[in-house]
Amino acid sequence: MMSSSGSASCCADIKISAVVLDLDGTLLDTENATKGVLKEFLAKYGKKLDKEKEDRKRLGMTLQASAATIVKDYDLPFTPNQFIDEIIPLYRDKWLLARPLPGANRLIKHLHKNGVPFALASNSLREFIDAKISHQEGWNEYFSTILGSDQVKSGKPSPDLLIEAARRMGVDTLKCLVIEDSLVGVKAAKAAKMRVVAVPSGSEADCSLLADSVLHSLLEFQPEIWGLPLFDDWVDKALPIEPIYFRILYKNGCVTEVTDDGKSALPCQVSGLYFGWAESGMHRISKVVVGIGLLHHSCTVKRNIQIHMIVEKANEFSDQKMQLELVGYIRRLNSMELESNNVEILEEDKSIASCGLDQSIFIHHFSAPFNNSGCCVSGGL
Which structural domain, as residue segments, surrounds residue 242? Predict the structure, then answer.
């Protein structure tokens, strides 16, 4: 297994010709968008959701396999097919709210612009894939091919989906790179004799053991390691990103995430050092640098968020609820930061953030969440 950023020396002899991408949890944050659907459905039948089981057991499974286990685990009065018929309309409504994960649109547009063949291969049924990506601009047109588990003999962890994707792109499986978030997806890639990069959620850390490379966010992906064209979108050591919104409680110098559902939820695949804007309860907007990591303790995963005010003193914001809008990415966390409870925000990081937030490419997103709040801006624009 390679390090989180990959190693150029380890892959010097690798020349990838095509990429195969998973959908749920890799490109699209369907997990947060649909959070609560199963819980509410089970409650109607007097059943209580087992959160730990759902977090760890079903990620990456086919629809039929997942339905069969849910019916059995909760002793529901349905056949698996009846369960699917009952619950899918509830999921369909929520799929429309799913947001691309950080770096997803960037990667898709980069591969398309550079003429790299790339496929979408998901354990979802093809009609569900189409429904999930219907509101994502360009996705349906950009992919060289799109495959669901109902279009091959067996879904992941069988290699059938990936082998068929390679065949349709006219590329040898040995020349394909797979990007996945789940253990079943990584196993499928290995069975297809493809290289695989894992971007696991907190509950899927096991897939890191089998992957060729492990990232904590798609923003960490370095295509040149695999013989693919370099990204060319960095601006003075900072990367413009699609805005990430979430709310926190800032208390005694520590951050507690207070929003964990809907559009403002923070996906597991948000990791690294970012910068952007913070609106405090005092209706004031400030420039901030934000470090985000995940702490693994036995079977539990806890998010570690640290925030630095670029202009104000931190104690001025104690016991404040804040809405954050992250618009720029600086770097991935180093191994020491990932393993400890401390994200070190360097003076260079602060300088990059401060300069970036004065540039039009980052200010462009500024008005979206705060425009109607009547806030004043601290530190200037």
Answer: 238-362
CATH of the domain at 108: 3.40.50.1000
**Secondary structure (DSSP) of 272-309:** EEEEEEEE-TTSEEEEEEEEEEEEEETTEEEEEEEEEE
Whether the model clears a pTM of 0.85, i.e. scores above it, the answer is yes
Q: Of 226, 230, 200, 202, whose CA–CA distance to 215 is shortest?
A: 200
Q: For residues 240 and 234, give the distance between their C-alpha atoms in angstroms, rounded to a whole number.
A: 7
Q: For 69-212, list the strands marked E by DSSP.
A: 118-121, 145-147, 176-180, 195-198
Q: Does residue 232 carry a catalytic annotation?
A: no
Active-site residue, selected from the candidate residues 24, 29, 160, 349: 24
Q: Where a domain ends, among 231, 254, 278?
A: 231
Assess if residue 4 is contained within a domain: no
Q: Is 349 a catalytic residue?
A: no
The rounded Cα 273 to chain-centroid distance in angstroms is: 15
Cα(286)–Cα(33) distance, rounded to whole angstroms?
A: 29
pLDDT tens for the 381 residues of the chain, in order: 554 444 444 554 678 999 999 999 999 999 888 988 999 999 999 999 887 767 655 666 788 888 999 999 999 999 999 999 999 999 999 999 999 999 999 999 999 999 999 999 999 999 999 999 999 999 999 999 999 999 999 999 999 999 999 999 999 999 999 999 999 999 999 999 999 999 987 656 667 789 999 999 999 999 999 999 999 999 999 999 999 998 888 776 677 656 655 555 788 789 999 999 998 766 678 899 999 987 655 445 677 888 888 876 655 666 678 889 999 999 999 888 877 767 888 999 999 999 999 998 887 555 555 544 444 444 443
Closest CA to 159 of 192, 125, 195: 192
Neighbours of 18 (CB within 10 A): 23
Query: Coil, helix or strand for 21?
Result: strand
**How many domains is the chain built from?**
2
Structure tokens, 312: 């104000």
Catalytic residue, chosen from 13, 22, 73, 160, is 22
